[in-house]
Specification:
UCP07580; Metal-dependent hydrolase
Amino acid sequence: MANAKTPADLTITPRDRRFGRDGAYRRWWLNDDPVATAFYNALSVTFPRGEGFFIDSVRRFREGTPPRLDREIAAFIKQEVMHTREHVAFNRHVTDQGYDISRLEARVEEDIADSRSRPAIGSLAATMCLEHFTAILAHELIDNPRHLAGADPEAAKLWRWHAIEEIEHKGVAYDTWLHATRDWSRWKRWKVKSLVMLMVTLRFLRKRTEGMLDLLAQDGLTGARVKWRLFRYAFGNPGMARKILGAWLSFFLPGFHPWNHDDRKLIGLVDSEYAAARLPHPQAA
């Protein structure tokens, strides 16, 4: 089975929106639920430094890419820069509610420093894997409105905006990886990307769980019962982790490409909210 290609008519369009500048979110901004709120707050803490790492990793292999991929990388970078800005603002709301996120940020820095100590192709591989993570999380977030039910409106808009752009550019890091490893055998490429995905997944789950439990502890919520509540939220109802499992496994299939599953219809469900914020996309330049 040959690798599917990014759709020829795909447009990656940065949308320059700002969220939550006019007021504070509730401490438990997602349905008055400390567990649900900690789930997304811990994820948000990873984005400012993580998005910068993604940009650097892809940019290092941009030279010599085909013109279309070069334009897609340019649009990807613009989107990621704005995601960074908005999650910096969101994380400021988190700290304004009294949470200390310094330990969570230190874990992210530790992961990035470890990745940057390895060859550049390893950072690109990690980025490709994490971009698959963000894309499948984004798909589920849009496809199942229950995940953001009861959220403060501006927070929900932020997460939906971020999600549609993650879906839109989900093939960029992967296509950059394919270009960078074009002289590798299919076996070597599969072996390396699979190993990196397993490593990234284990680290992601462990560090994000630690972050969620840290935030919950700051709410005075600790112990086995709280850990069970978090597990039930992730794997039971609404079950984000459980629902993305199949899409995560698809990464290991021969011939995998992020666009084997064309889910642009989900972008259309949300995009009209941000029509006025669309920037001219590089494809039109």
